[in-house]
Amino acid sequence: xxxxxxxxxxxxxxxxxxxxxxxxxxxxxxxxxxxxxxxxxxxxxxxxxxxxxxxxxxxxxxxxxxxxxxxxxxxxxxxxxxxxxxxxxxxxxxxxxxxxxxxxxxxxxxxxxxxxxxxxxxxxxxxxxxxxxxxxxxxxxxxxxxxxxxxxxxxxxxxxxxxxxxxxxxxxxxxxxxxxxxxxxxxxxxxxxxxxxxxxxxxxxxxxxxxxxxxxxxxxxxxxxxxxxxxxxxxxxxxxxxxxxxxxxxxxxxxxxxxxxxxxxxxxxxxxxxxxxxxxxxxxxxxxxxxxxxxxxxxxxxxxxxxxxxxxxxxxxxxxxxxxxxxxxxxxxxxxxxxxxxxxxxxxxxxxxxxxxxxxxxxxxxxxxxxxxxxxxxxxxxxxxxxxxxxx
Length: 392
Ligand code: ADP
Ligand code: MG
Prior knowledge:
It is built from 15 helices and 17 strands. It starts with 15 loop residues before the first strand and ends with a helix. The site of magnesium ion has 3 residues, from helix 13.
């Protein structure tokens, strides 16, 4: 099944198009703090702008609970979007406002937060019917919500036939890059998995075992692997209920001759926020009163060497508490190794993307996925409701 692209749209000239974007940007005191997602939406809006008559952009923002909440209004996004596009943007303070039907040709509307209605999260048919009522075409460019069965990405596109709905440029780029990791990835395929916990990533971890040659485990979740191997891990973050999962991953990998690299040396500290002790110890000699917060230098060199020899690499989850400079070396070393790798490189995940930005290597990564949960669901092989609805 292929996801329809913008070029597959029929009769988009002069059409009225509803576009679902990911404008879920951080807002503080009524001001947009980071315009990355707004800027990322521009290519699709420009393409539509050259063809369509009326464009309405819709999105969710923050944790709105099904009723209007000024803290989560999309209003502050409108001027930033207008500036980035170089054309006026009219903000509509209710995504179901009947006046939307009367918008003049040439208008670009930004609709208020979809999650001000409970129907959005409930994937409610009636809400989707009202949302789409005055549009002939639908475009989804919000990959970050593609794994959610919500009305604007699921019930809404189902109301449009073939040729009347498509993925925008961002969504298409995500699908094409992530597909290279799922369908016949070029070998050797190395996956680097870290971050805080195994419990949030069990399914993708198991799915990766169907495809990778080498698995590198770092971050907080590596502690659970170290404990499963019988090592003392002191006061480190650990998930005791995941010890058997860690053992299963190692057993499956052994059965399939997949190399699993676990840290052999680690950085330990006494207190993350106010450390007085920061030292490198062997992974089998972690002092009981300290905690693991980063890979040691031998480990990040081994990990970097594995990445250097890969034809395909996927990385999700920082290798340590990289937010703190003293514990960021492992994560920065992996970011650099990804950037230097001649193979096809993909990074996904909220904190992981922050880490490669901090390392200054975003431009040297082949694909930076904007959707943490959505990219993991795609890798797991789950059907993404938003893609299924576009392909129907
Ligand atoms: P992502 O958002 O990239 O998917 P996660 O949300 O799973 O990543 O995890 C990111 C967090 O994991 C970071 O905030 C980091 O501080 C934390 N982390 C990484 N290693 C450790 C560790 N050893 N101990 C505690 N927290 C850790
Ligand atoms: Mg995260």
